[in-house]
Each structure stands twice: as structure tokens, then as C-alpha cells.
Design a protein that fits this description.
Pfam family, one: CxxCxxCC
Strand content: 5-15%
Number of helices: 11
InterPro entries: Puta_zinc/iron-chelating_dom
Number of strands: 6
Organism: Oceanobacillus caeni
Order of helices and strands: HHHEHHHEEHEHEHHEH
Number of domains: 1
Protein name: Fe-S oxidoreductase
Length: about 240
């Protein structure tokens, strides 16, 4: 029988994290500095910086897990967390859409076909769900989660993300370290952990890079800084695809 960490053990390990591990912010800024000096298009610089910064978030999470000896129990095909609302800014949404446009044709077309069916099926529910005020309504996550509307990028036949490598910070940083059944049995499980605080390093580096490009006079498909301050549900941003 599997021996999973208890809720108390998870809390204890997370409380010790700041004592045993320090986030290496320099790694995030080294990524954008590297791409700032590449001889390639501004679009490529933005896309590659975005993808590598997301990868760095995942690497930092792995390092933290090792520091306090925690191992995620999340498994492929477990997608209960893919029914939570995902909030991102317009800059992130535009980069995600641009990344999808750059996927191989077969994969890109599969995603677009999936999204077309998705909005036909869930469009009416999303009209009301995306009106939930995520800034003022403290229960918006619970209300959204109870609706059982999946993420636009979840293939509900395979329970796999169709754009896994560019999944946003809220998806990437939500982890379970105890019995996976808690996610199935609870709409809002207390045992899960979020490393969403890594958004600060990720967005700090990405924003500094965009500021550099803005000063250089070319931010490609990003309207900077306006796109940084416009936030909305991922389901709203992807509707245009």
C-alpha cells in the first residue's frame, strides 16, 4: 500500500522551505539576457524567452522538492486541477497563441479544431463564468470549479493538456503530494500546494525583457506595457483562436 505524506507533513515541509532553499533569481534574468543578444527576430526572442522562463519555474519547483524531500503524486491522465479558472494577462495570452501558431501544422490544426468544438459545447456556460469578478469575488474559484467546465486546452478524452510545454504558471505550479484521491474526492482539496509565488521571478524577468525591447523600439506582436495590465480568464483569451 502506498504511503503518502499527510496534510500535516506537507505543511511542515512547506514551512521549512524558506529556511533550506533560496530561489536563484539570476537564472531567470540570464535567460532574457541570453535572448536579448541573439541574432534572431524579436518574435523569436519573445517566444523562446517565455518558454525557457516557464521551464525555469518547473526546474525551481523540482529543486525545492528535493530540498525538503517531497515527490509529487500527480500522474498523467489526472486532470482534476484542469477545471479551475486560469487567469493570465494579455501579454501571456498573446505569447501562448503565437506559440500555438508556431506548432507543427497537424498539431496546430488539432488544437484549433478542439477549441472550435469546446466553445460550441461550453460557450453558454462560459458567458456567465467569465463574468465572475476574480478580483473582488473571493469564491470565484469555487464557483468556477463547481461548474465542471474544463480548461480550453484539456483534451477530455485523454485527460492531457494539448499545449503542455506552454501551460501557464497557475497550472504549472499547482501540485499534490499526498493521496491523488483527494483531488477526485474534493472540489477544493486543502492538501494541494501552489508554488505560484514563482510568478514574481518569471514575470519580473519577462517584464524587464519587454521593457528592454520597448526601449529598443520593437515589441513585435505585444502592445507593451498595456498588455501586461489587462488580465482575464484563459478561456476568454483563447476564444479568438
Amino acid at each position: 500500500m502506498d504511503q503518502y505524506l499527510s496534510f500535516e507533513e506537507i505543511q511542515d515541509k512547506c514551512s521549512r522551505l524558506s529556511d533550506v532553499y533560496e530561489i536563484d533569481e539570476d537564472k531567470f534574468y540570464q535567460i532574457v539576457e541570453k535572448w536579448a543578444n541573439q541574432e534572431t527576430s524579436t518574435e523569436e526572442k519573445i517566444l523562446n524567452s517565455f518558454i525557457e522562463l516557464l521551464q525555469m519555474v518547473s526546474e525551481e519547483m523540482s529543486n525545492m522538492e528535493k530540498a525538503v524531500q517531497m515527490e509529487a503524486t500527480c500522474r498523467m491522465g489526472c486532470a482534476f486541477c484542469c477545471y479551475f479558472p486560469i487567469i493570465i494577462n494579455e501579454m501571456e495570452a498573446k505569447i501562448m497563441k503565437k506559440a500555438i501558431e508556431n506548432f507543427p501544422e497537424e498539431r496546430r490544426n488539432r488544437i484549433k479544431h478542439h477549441l472550435s468544438n469546446y466553445y460550441q459545447q461550453y460557450g453558454e456556460k462560459l458567458e456567465s463564468l467569465t463574468q465572475l469578478d476574480f478580483n473582488e469575488d473571493k469564491d470565484f474559484k469555487l464557483k468556477y470549479r463547481r461548474s465542471l467546465v474544463p480548461c480550453p486546452l484539456l483534451d477530455t478524452k485523454t485527460n492531457q493538456c494539448m499545449a503542455y510545454e506552454i501551460r501557464p504558471i497557475p497550472c504549472r505550479t499547482y501540485v499534490n503530494y499526498t493521496d491523488p484521491d483527494v483531488c477526485e474526492q474534493n472540489v477544493m482539496p486543502k492538501e494541494t500546494v501552489s508554488f505560484e509565488f514563482l510568478y514574481e521571478q518569471y514575470m519580473g524577468a519577462l517584464n524587464e525583457f519587454m521593457q528592454f525591447l520597448y526601449d529598443e523600439g520593437n515589441t513585435a506582436f505585444i502592445q507593451y506595457p498595456d498588455d501586461v495590465y489587462q488580465t482575464d480568464y484563459l478561456a476568454s483569451w483563447l476564444r479568438s483562436m
